[in-house]
Design goal:
alpha+beta; 2 helices
Length: 79
């Protein structure tokens, strides 16, 4: 149930392409006055525009995006 709430939150603050090509796999919320939320995303095995000429070339290192979308609450995405 809680994951659904976080999925809805991400759909409000991030571009729709994020939810099309990534799944939310984990959420960690730090305790304390700042309450930083860490959202972990995993890329779906989908090719854009139904392309068939793309070939997977391995895994990339984890990326981190620090974003401040709502009332100065820190949001950290790990992809």
């Amino acid at each position: 149930m809680m994951e659904n709430v976080y999925t809805q939150l991400l759909s409000l603050v991030l571009p729709k392409e994020v939810s099309e090509f990534f799944d939310l796999v984990k959420v960690d919320v730090e305790a304390g006055p700042e309450g930083v939320a860490h959202f972990y995303l995993e890329e779906k095995a989908l090719a854009p525009d139904d392309r068939t000429d793309l070939v997977p070339n391995g895994f990339y290192a984890e990326s981190q995006i620090t974003h401040f979308p709502i009332c100065n609450h820190k949001t950290i995405l790990r992809v």
